[in-house]
Design goal:
Number of strands: 0
Mean pLDDT: 77
Helix content: over 70%
Low-confidence stretches: none
Largest sheet: none
Strand content: under 5%
Distance between the termini: 158 Å
Structural class: mainly alpha
Number of helices: 5
Length: 175
Amino acid sequence: MIEQTTSQDAHKTTSQDAHKKGLQRQIRRTRDSMRDTVEQIQDAAEEKYQAVKKTVSDVLDYREEFQKEPVVWTVGALSAGFAAGYAVGYSHKVANSKKGSQVANFADTVVNDLSRLGQRLVLPELNAKITELFGFNFGGFLQQIGSNGKHTRTKRLQNRRRQRQPKRGRSKKSG
């Protein structure tokens, strides 16, 4: 009976060993298959990345395209600027009819920020170029126009008010 138990144990051990070896082979095959799949995914992702990188660099390299078609790019930039300005201006006009409107506040903020940016970055460069080319101070000219426009408008309003008011102390004499 001891011999029978020993042979059964030996049989169980060999069947367990065979089962372990089978599982190990299956794990090895699965691991190899997963490694191959991961490598294929990595290769595909790398190819897609390179393709997207090339496309983006081609799109972002606008300088070459601008040199080829400067008129088209200039008209496009002017159109985009006009459309954005018109949209902001229209929304500001509509929003000003409502007191404390969020759109009006946003439009005011955008206009003020763009104005400050233009006065700090664009205007000095533009002024230097105009002074170099034409010999006059463009910034001073703009300030003069702005200050004259404000005073003129005020004087005009005062003159209109005076004209609308009846003149005191004078009466028409019928003759």
